């Protein structure tokens, strides 16, 4: 499996600044994808999410932008729109083409250079680099400066990153795939066993995990740094309406809560955008279960593939 690009019509590209430790990941769906969104965290940063509302007139989107840089990173979506406009992608208004590109950001200003953020040009580079091959995972794109386990600050955190995973459904060729940029306040755990994979460490020199939820239940609050947010894109080749895509995004949030310990906190802006490209038929409940599984697995892969950077240790080297 290639990850999110297993879904025909999806391409993924990254742009990274490894000096400043920030970047952009772009999911292109140039032929148009029916889309929905669900926001689980309390600290979101987004742009053009209104177009995903089932009551909005816009029928499809043409890309989704994920970026570091906190609110500054929303600028990257302008570069994606420029790239698509130059390719003739978007809704036609006279001689103009208007691509629809929702964007969402994570906070990575606590690592690398806080005064260097993703730009319009970086968004354009990520879009131009998009391909339908295997999704590159780990400390790249929007996951370049991602970290997890920040209960006691960055000194005891671990590296997060980009992960992607596909779940085949039934015998008709239906697939549900997810891409996650993992930058959580909490820890990451395996969905099946509940075993902690990465997160807040016992000390700056230890690889042993302290267990953020367990510590919080004792009443200790730690640093509670506001530099977090896990961003997910779910895609399927099953046909969905905007209402269905919205429901798929909502059901996929179960995967966020399985994999993040804790998830949806007051200092996370967890977002799931769901994309439907295709004409296959499948039960909504089946798709929702597959989406939650894909998201949970993508989050775990995001930390397992992430390399240590900026003095923060990673499982990927």
List keywords for this structure.
L-amino peptidase D-ALA esterase/amidase, 9-stranded mixed β-sheet, globular, alpha+beta, 317 residues, 3-stranded antiparallel β-sheet
Describe the overall structure:
- There is one protein chain.
- It is built from five helices and 16 strands.
- By secondary structure, the chain is α+β, with helices and mostly antiparallel strands.
- The protein has one domain: L-amino peptidase D-ALA esterase/amidase.
- The strands form four sheets. Strands 1, 2, 3, 4, 7, 10, 11, 14 and 16 form a nine-stranded mixed beta sheet that branches.
- Helix 1 crosses helix 2 and helix 4 packs across helix 5.
- The longest helix is centred in the last third of the chain and has 21 residues.
- It is globular.
- The mean pLDDT is 96.
In a few lines, what is going on in this structure?
The protein is an alpha+beta fold and 317 residues long. The protein has five helices and 16 strands. Strands 1, 2, 3, 4, 7, 10, 11, 14 and 16 form a nine-stranded mixed β-sheet that branches. Strands 13-12-15 form a three-stranded antiparallel β-sheet.
According to CATH, the fold-level topology is: L-amino peptidase D-ALA esterase/amidase
Low-confidence regions = none
Distance between the termini: 23 Å
Mean pLDDT: 96
Corresponding CATH superfamily: L-amino peptidase D-ALA esterase/amidase
> How is the main sheet built?
9 strands, mixed
Indicate the radius of gyration in whole angstroms: 18 Å
SSE run: EEEEHEEEHEEEEEEHEHEEH
Beta percentage is: 25-35%
Query: Mind telling me which CATH architecture this is?
Result: 4-Layer Sandwich
Provide the helix percentage: 10-25%
Helices, by number, come to 5
User: Any idea of the CATH class?
Assistant: Alpha Beta
């Amino acid at each position: 499996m290639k990850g999110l690009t297993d879904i025909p019509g999806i391409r993924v590209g990254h742009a990274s600044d490894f000096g400043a430790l920030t970047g952009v990941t772009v999911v292109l769906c140039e032929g148009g994808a029916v889309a929905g969104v669900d926001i689980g965290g309390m600290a979101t940063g987004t742009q053009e999410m209104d177009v995903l509302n089932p009551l909005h007139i816009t029928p499809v989107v043409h890309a989704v932008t994920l970026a570091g840089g906190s609110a500054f990173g929303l600028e990257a979506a302008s570069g994606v729109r420029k790239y698509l406009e130059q390719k003739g992608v978007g809704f036609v208004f006279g001689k103009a083409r208007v691509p629809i590109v929702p964007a969402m950001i994570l906070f990575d200003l606590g690592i690398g250079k806080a005064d260097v953020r993703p730009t319009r040009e970086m968004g354009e580079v990520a879009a131009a680099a998009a391909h339908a091959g295997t999704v590159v995972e780990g400390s790249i794109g929007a996951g370049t400066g991602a970290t997890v386990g920040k209960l006691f600050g960055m000194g005891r955190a671990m590296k997060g990153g980009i992960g992607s995973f596909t779940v085949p459904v039934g015998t008709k060729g239906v697939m549900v795939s997810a891409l996650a940029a993992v930058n959580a306040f909490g820890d990451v755990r395996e969905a099946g066993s509940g075993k902690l994979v990465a997160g807040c460490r016992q000390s700056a020199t230890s690889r042993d995990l302290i267990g953020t939820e367990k510590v919080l239940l004792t009443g200790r609050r730690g640093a509670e740094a506001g530099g977090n947010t896990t961003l997910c894109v779910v895609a399927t080749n099953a046909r969905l309406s905007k209402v269905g895509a919205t429901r798929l995004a909502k059901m996929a949030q179960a995967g966020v809560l399985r994999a993040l310990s804790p998830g949806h906190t007051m200092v996370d802006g967890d977002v799931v955008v769901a994309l439907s490209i295709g004409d296959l038929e499948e039960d909504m409940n089946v798709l929702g279960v597959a989406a939650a599984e894909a998201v949970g697995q993508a989050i775990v892969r995001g930390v397992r593939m992430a390399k240590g950077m900026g003095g923060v240790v990673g499982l990927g080297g």
